[in-house]
Automatic annotation (TrEMBL):
It comes from Strongylocentrotus purpuratus (Purple sea urchin). One of its GO terms (biological process) is prostaglandin biosynthetic process. This is Thromboxane-A synthase. PROSITE patterns: CYTOCHROME_P450. Monomer. Belongs to the cytochrome P450 family.
C-alpha cells in the first residue's frame, strides 16, 4: 500500500515504521531518569519540562526540590539535565573534579560572533582567553575604573532628588544607572540613558536583554535541533542581526579611536583588553600582594579554588573575541547588577534599623562625594555584609551549569558524559539546614566568624571554582558605590505601592515583573 506526495510514491508501511521508530526513540529518551533511579517530574514529548518554567524558573526548581530532594532530573526540551542542590556535590564538581566539568552547556543556536565570549568558549581556548582577561578585573584595575562609576552616581543621585515624595520604580532607576556605568566602563561611551532613554545604545541594549529561550526561534531550535543548523547558516540568532552589527560597529570604532589616541587612553574594559597581552602589569599580576583590608578578598577566597597561576602572556585575542567579551560584559553585568540594587534598596526600606546602622558607617568612612572610591568601600564591613545578605536572599542568577565531559560518580550520583549539570543557587542559599530562618534578612550571617563556620558552598551568587564570575569585583564595586552615594543624602522607605513581602517575577531572574516601588526621603 502506498500513496503519492509531490509525485513520489511513498510506502505506507515504511512511513509507519519510521514514525514508530521516532516515537519509540522519544519514549525511550523520556525514561532516561527513570532508568537510572533519579526522580523527575513528568516531561512532555519534544518540549520536556520547558513549559513548567514559564511561571518562574526558580519557582519550578524550588518545587521540584521539595518533592524530590536535593538531586533530581528535568528536561530542557529533549535534553536530560541533572539538578543538584547539595553543596558537597557542588564542591566536587566545581572544584575537585573541575577537569570533567570545565565547560558550560552550549545551546543549539550560535550567536556569532558572541559565541566567542567566555561563557561559550571551551577547554584550552577558554583558559587562554580567561588568562588574558583576568587582570582587567584585578583590584588595581577596579581602582582605576571607580572614578567612572562615581560620575554615573552623580547623575543617579541628582535624578533621585527630583523624585522625592514619588512612588519610584527603583528597578527602572537602577537599570539606567547600570547601563550608563557599563557603557562607560566597557566601551568608553558617554551614554546618558538616565536622562535619554531614546539613545541608540539603550535601544539595542534592551533588544539584547529581550533574547531568551522562550523566543520562537529558540523554541523551534529546541524542539527540532536540526533546524538550528539552518538558523546558524542564515545567521538567525537570539539577538537581532541589526543589534549585533550595532555593537560590533561600536567596538570597532572605539578601538580605532583608542589606537589614534595612544598615550592618552581612558581605562575602560575595552582598553584594558587591548593592553592585556603586552601590559607590564599583566606579567607581574601573580606577584600582587592582596590588601588585608579589602573585604572583596574574603568573597574571592571563601571557596576552594584549583586555579593554575600559570599565565599565557603570548595569547592574542581576535577581533571577534574582543567584541564578544565586551558585549558579554554588558549582558552579564547589566541585569544582574540592577536587580541586586533593586532588592538591596527594598531590604533597606523594610529593615530601617539596618539602614540606620549602614548610614552611620557611610558617614564615618565616606562622608563626601570624593571619599567614595574602591579603597573606601572595600573596607566597609557592614556594607559588605548587607550586600552579601542581599545576594543570598535574592541571587541575580538563580542557576549555574556545567557540561560533563567524562562520566563521573560523586556521593553515589553518576553523571554521564554529555549530560548537563545544573545547580540551584536560589535553593542552596535558602536551605534551612544551611541558613537558620532563611527568609529573614540578617547581614550578621556574614561576619568573619560566621563565614568561617559555614560550608564554603552555601553561598555561591558568583558561581564557584575556576569558572566563577570573572566580573565579581566590578559588580561589587558598582553596587556598593551606588548605595553609598545614595545614603549620603537619602534613605529608602516603603511606599503605598510596595509589595511586602516582595513578589518575584516569572522570568529567568527573581526581578518582579512590575518592578519594586519605593520612595526616597532626604536625610534629616
Amino acid at each position: 500500500m502506498s500513496f503519492s506526495i509531490f509525485g513520489f510514491n511513498v510506502s505506507l508501511p515504511l512511513v509507519g515504521a519510521i514514525v514508530a521508530i521516532l516515537v519509540g526513540r522519544e519514549l525511550w529518551n523520556l525514561t532516561y531518569f527513570w532508568r537510572r533511579g533519579i526522580k523527575c517530574s513528568r516531561p512532555l514529548p519534544l518540549l520536556g519540562n520547558i513549559l513548567s518554567c514559564t511561571k518562574g524558573f526558580y519557582s519550578y526548581i524550588y518545587t521540584c526540590q521539595q518533592n524530590y530532594g536535593n538531586i533530581f532530573g528535568l528536561y530542557f526540551f529533549r535534553s536530560p539535565l541533572i539538578v543538584v542542590c547539595d553543596p558537597d556535590v557542588l564542591r566536587d564538581v566545581l572544584v575537585k573534579s573541575f577537569s570533567k566539568f570545565s565547560n558550560h552547556y552550549q545551546f543549539f543556536l550560535k550567536n556569532r560572533p558572541l559565541d566567542q565570549g567566555l561563557l561559550d568558549l571551551r577547554d584550552q581556548r577558554w583558559k587562554d582567553v580567561r588568562s588574558v582577561i583576568s587582570p582587567t578585573f584585578s583590584a588595581l584595575k577596579m581602582k582605576q575604573m571607580s572614578p567612572v562609576i562615581n560620575e554615573c552616581c552623580d547623575v543617579l543621585v541628582t535624578n533621585l532628588k527630583k523624585k522625592q515624595g514619588e512612588d519610584i520604580n527603583v528597578n527602572s532607576v537602577f537599570e539606567a544607572f547600570t547601563m550608563d556605568g557599563i557603557a562607560k566602563c566597557a566601551f568608553g561611551l558617554q551614554v546618558d540613558s538616565q536622562n535619554n532613554p531614546d539613545d541608540p545604545f539603550v535601544k539595542h541594549a534592551k533588544r539584547i536583554m529581550d533574547g531568551t529561550v522562550e523566543s520562537p526561534v529558540a523554541m523551534i531550535a529546541g524542539v527540532f535541533p536540526p533546524a538550528a543548523y539552518l538558523f546558524n547558516a542564515l545567521d538567525i540568532a537570539l539577538f537581532p542581526a541589526e543589534t549585533r552589527k550595532f555593537f560590533r560597529d561600536v567596538v570597532v570604532k572605539a578601538i580605532e579611536l583608542k589606537k589614534r589616541s595612544a598615550g592618552n587612553e581612558r581605562r575602560d574594559f575595552l582598553q584594558l583588553m587591548m593592553n592585556a597581552h603586552n601590559d607590564d602589569e599583566h606579567d607581574s599580576r601573580s606577584k600582587v600582594i592582596k590588601d588585608d583590608n579589602d573585604l572583596h578578598n574574603l568573597i574571592e577566597d571563601h571557596q576552594d579554588k584549583h586555579v593554575s597561576n600559570a599565565q599565557n602572556t603570548k595569547t592574542q585575542l581576535t577581533m571577534d573575541e574582543i567584541f564578544a567579551q565586551a558585549v558579554l560584559f554588558f549582558v552579564a553585568g547589566y541585569e544582574t547588577t540592577n536587580v541586586t540594587l533593586g532588592f538591596l534598596a527594598y531590604a533597606l526600606a523594610t529593615n530601617p534599623d539596618i539602614q540606620d546602622r549602614l548610614i552611620e558607617e557611610v558617614d564615618e568612612v565616606t562622608p563626601t562625594r570624593d571619599s567614595v572610591d574602591y579603597n573606601s568601600i572595600a573596607k566597609m564591613s557592614l556594607l559588605d555584609m548587607v550586600v552579601c545578605e542581599t545576594l543570598r536572599l535574592y541571587p541575580p542568577a538563580v542557576m549555574g551549569d556545567r557540561c560533563c565531559s567524562e562520566t563521573h560518580t560523586v556521593n553515589g550520583l553518576t553523571i554521564e558524559k554529555g549530560v548537563q549539570f545544573l545547580y540551584s543557587i536560589y535553593n542552596i542559599q535558602r536551605d534551612p539546614t544551611l541558613w537558620p530562618e532563611p527568609e529573614k534578612f540578617d547581614p550578621s550571617r556574614f561576619t568573619k566568624e560566621n563565614r568561617a563556620n559555614r560550608h564554603p558552598f552555601a553561598w555561591i551568587p558568583f558561581g564557584a571554582g575556576p569558572r566563577n564570575c570573572i566580573g565579581m569585583r566590578f559588580a561589587l564595586m558598582e553596587i556598593k558605590m551606588a548605595v553609598v552615594r545614595i545614603l549620603q543624602k537619602y534613605r529608602f522607605v516603603p511606599s503605598p505601592k510596595t509589595d511586602i513581602p516582595v513578589k518575584f517575577g516569572t522570568g529567568n531572574t527573581l526581578k518582579p515583573d512590575g518592578g519594586i516601588f519605593l520612595r526616597v526621603e532626604e536625610r534629616q
